[in-house]
Design goal:
Blueprint: E1 3-7, E2 19-25, E3 30-35, E4 40-44, E5 50-55, E6 65-69, E7 72-76, E8 81-86, E9 91-97, E10 103-108, E11 114-119, E12 124-129, E13 134-139, E14 149-152, E15 158-162, E16 166-171, E17 177-182, E18 197-202, E19 207-212, E20 216-221, E21 226-232, E22 238-243, E23 249-254, E24 258-265, E25 278-286, E26 292-297, E27 301-306, E28 311-315, E29 330-332, E30 340-343, E31 348-352, E32 356-361, E33 374-375, E34 382-388, E35 397-400, E36 406-410, E37 415-423, E38 426-432, E39 445-447, E40 453-457, E41 463-468, E42 473-479, E43 489-494, E44 500-505, E45 510-514, E46 519-521, E47 531-537, E48 542-547, E49 552-556, H1 557-564, E50 616-618, E51 624-626, H2 636-639, E52 642-647, E53 654-660, E54 667-668, E55 675-676, E56 691-695
Parallel strand pairs: 1-56, 33-56
Antiparallel strand pairs: 2-3, 3-4, 4-5, 6-7, 7-8, 8-9, 10-11, 11-12, 12-13, 14-15, 15-16, 16-17, 18-19, 19-20, 20-21, 22-23, 23-24, 24-25, 26-27, 27-28, 28-29, 30-31, 31-32, 32-34, 35-36, 36-37, 37-38, 39-40, 40-41, 41-42, 43-44, 44-45, 45-46, 47-48, 48-49, 50-51, 52-53, 54-55
Length: about 700
């Protein structure tokens, strides 16, 4: 591979924002997390906690509460507005004024028909959830203090509201308060000091659980309005509560950074059948250094976030199998999207922040050394430009051309392009005007290797191709996938020779476009795991995709091109050879030679004549091969695999002609011979050695 220098970049001062609220949708296994800067991140818990979407925030719009209603996401904040998000275009769909001052909390009933908002003026406002919007319905009885927390009874007939010094239970049909639960002050507290009920939980048996600023978790009888039990958790505040789906466990987050679990069990050492159960404090977790502001209790884990910017997923070991991937503690701090762009030819780096961009020039060294040596720096890294955004919307994506001459960024309002000219220590930046009307906004941006084209992902998985000249840009084509997916594109990867463009969206689709013909090439793969990284190699004509389950997949563009080229009906298929026919006569011109492939249900390579069945399949190039029979019963993993093999000139191996692979045991790079094998798939193979000198 030759010698190369490794630069240690220590000047990217990115600081994530604190987490203010989280909400979990059990129907789709998506977690939404709102940060202090107003941005909303969506994680896919079904696919290794992958951050699949980020909705940029806006200055002056902080999110205090999140709520899922089916597949729809709502938020509210101290600006007094309720916002619904467009999860396809990654922007707010609309905002509705609540007319009650700052909105502290929102909550929907289990039926998904009503949305309640707790406001500063002491009212609980009810909104009807319609198909395309929400509509104000009524106010519940107005109270003297602000409504800080809300919780619906699963039946939807009652709602509990936490406020200053008390909890109110409202009848949702009449709108009147039926009970008033007075909250005790802490020991030694002044009589003038108010107790804030930060969080409430209303269970199906009418038990109410509250957490307050006196550090107490209290259990109430919702029928009589009486206090049942008090647990002193901390000397400070209990900020948030969350209940497990089966209502057998409750977790409480405190301002000390701890999470305490309560379980509805018998307190006796050896409980007798039919003995009374009660809420008992069982465990305490310490995973945060500051306030825990947000909590979610899933079936198998506790998800917490707070002021230390970390999203922590702590599995409950009594719910998962020990010593497995599901039992590992996870801390998610930095975003999963790319915030750094590199101009390889110019030695420049572009750093993306929510409110500005920074262009840095890398340091240089003229020293020589042995592999692994730290080289002396002749020229230190230098900050060349700080470009502040225009408007109040945060920057959602940015890109720097490989030559260092173009810079682009996008917000939800539009795309902006700048021309950079660097001459020794002098740098000049000019904005390119007359934006094409097709470039209204983008989720991903990138440039071609020769910096002559600019690619921007738009709505409905489409990509806008723009030609670049000296101080202008011209719309060339809008590439649209044939699948008709409406999900946003989260990856763009052009090839080095400028012929191919690969896109991946959050609908687990990978699309390959031929930039010479400006049309899509048919791709046989469709995975159930979202792609997190993609690279196009022109020398080997291969696409390498990394997915959220950590399985790298190598795929050949020649096979894709072969499958996209329609054969003439008059072209006869290549006949399958008879047993007496030499193997060399049945070779397929589109398949690689001399390689073997391991099936998902066997760690041994597929051999000719082994595992074949009576079913036959035509491949795109016209040959006919045998399909190895999967084991019985057919598992979901093997059901997603479809391929056929053709006998080759090698007596000990077969050729892979066409495949649709989801989670391979191993893949082989036919051009370079690099063998990729995930953990647990057999013995490791040697890799090429490389000499590396590091530049500090």
């Amino acid at each position: 591979m030759g010698e190369f220098k490794v630069h240690r970049v220590r000047f990217f001062d990115y600081m994530p924002s604190a987490i203010r609220a989280v909400a979990f949708c059990r129907r789709t296994e998506r977690l939404a997390a709102a940060r202090a800067d107003g941005s909303v991140e969506i994680f896919n818990f079904a696919d290794n906690y992958f951050q699949e979407k980020v909705i940029p925030g806006r200055d002056g719009r902080a999110v205090e509460a999140l709520c899922w209603v089916g597949r729809r996401l709502f938020s509210a904040g101290l600006d007094g507005e309720i916002t619904e998000y467009d999860l396809e275009n990654l922007r707010p769909r609309y905002s509705l004024e609540a007319y009650g001052g700052p909105v502290w909390t929102i909550s929907s009933n289990k039926q998904g028909t009503l949305l309640a908002a707790g406001c500063e003026d002491g009212t609980v406002k009810m909104f009807e959830i319609l198909e395309d919007r929400i509509q104000f319905q009524r106010n519940l009885d107005r109270q003297k203090g602000r409504i800080v927390s809300l919780s619906w009874h699963p039946s939807g007939a009652q709602i509990a509201a936490g406020m200053m010094d008390m909890i109110r239970i409202f009848d949702t049909e009449t709108g009147h308060a039926s009970h008033r639960l007075l909250v005790e002050r802490g020991a030694g507290a002044s009589k003038t000091q108010e107790v804030v009920v930060w969080s409430v939980a209303f269970l199906s048996d009418s038990t109410i659980i509250s957490g307050d600023s006196a550090g107490k978790v209290q259990i109430w009888d919702g029928f009589t309005g009486t206090l049942v039990r008090t647990h002193l958790v901390t000397k400070w505040d209990v900020l948030v509560l969350s209940v497990s789906p089966d209502e057998s466990s409750v977790i409480a987050g405190t301002s000390e950074g701890t999470v305490t679990q309560f379980q509805f069990i018998s307190s006796a050492v050896e409980p007798l059948p039919g003995s009374d159960r009660q809420w008992v404090r069982t465990r305490t977790f310490k995973n945060h250094s500051h306030d825990v502001r947000a909590l979610v209790h899933t079936d198998t884990a506790v998800v917490s976030g707070g002021m230390d910017t970390q999203l922590v997923v702590r599995p409950l070991l009594d719910k998962v199998e020990k010593n497995t991937q599901e039992s590992a503690l996870r801390k998610i701090t930095f975003p999963h999207k790319n915030l750094v762009s590199c101009a390889k030819k110019a030695g420049l780096l572009l750093f993306q922040f929510p409110d500005h961009l920074e262009v840095w020039r890398l340091g240089d060294s003229d020293g020589n050394g042995k592999p692994g040596d730290i080289l002396p720096v002749k020229r230190k890294p230098e900050k060349l430009i700080q470009l502040n955004r225009k408007g109040d919307d945060q920057i959602c994506c940015s890109a720097l051309s490989p030559c260092g001459g173009w810079l682009a960024y996008s917000t939800v309002c539009g795309v902006r392009l700048y021309r950079l000219q660097l001459d020794n220590n002098n740098i000049c930046i000019n904005k390119v005007s007359k934006v094409p009307k097709e470039l209204c906004s983008a989720q991903q941006l990138c440039f071609s290797s020769d910096s002559s084209r600019f690619f921007a992902s738009s709505s409905q998985s489409s990509v806008v191709v723009v030609g670049l000249q000296q101080l202008e840009w011209r719309h060339l084509q809008t590439l649209r996938p044939k699948s008709g997916s409406r999900e946003p594109v989260n990856l763009l990867a052009p090839s080095e020779d400028g012929r191919w463009l690969v896109t991946a969206n959050t609908d687990c689709e990978i699309h390959v476009f031929d930039l010479q013909k400006l049309k899509e090439v048919e791709v046989p793969e469709r995975s159930t795991k979202p792609p997190v990284g993609s690279v196009v190699s022109v020398a080997s004509c291969r696409v390498r995709t990394s997915r959220s389950d950590s399985f790298p997949v190598n795929q050949n563009l020649n096979l894709w091109l072969c499958s996209s080229t329609a054969r003439s009906p008059s072209t006869p298929p290549v006949p399958l050879p008879s047993p007496s026919t030499p193997r060399a006569a049945a070779s397929c011109p589109f398949t690689p030679t001399g390689r073997s492939w391991s099936s998902p249900w066997s760690r041994r390579s597929t051999r000719s004549g082994a595992g074949s069945c009576s079913s036959r399949a035509f491949t795109p190039c016209g040959c006919r091969g045998t399909r190895p029979s999967p084991p019985s019963p057919l598992t979901p993993e093997t059901r997603r695999t479809s391929f056929c093999t053709t006998p080759s000139c090698s007596a000990s191996s077969t050729r892979l002609c066409h495949f649709l692979m989801q989670r391979p045991i191993c893949t082989t790079s036919w051009s370079s011979g690099a063998f990729l094998r995930p953990r647990g798939a057999g013995t490791a193979t040697p890799s090429r050695s490389a000499r590396a000198s590091r530049t500090s």
